Amino acid sequence: MEEMDTNIACFRIGNTHVIPVTDPKIAREFLVKQDATFASRPVSMAARAFSGGYVTTIFSTHGEQWKKMRRVVKSEIICPVRYKWLHDKRAEEAANLMKHVFNQCQSLGQVNLRQTTRHYCGRLIIKK
Question: Is pLDDT at 115 greater than 80 in this prediction?
Answer without folding.
Answer: yes
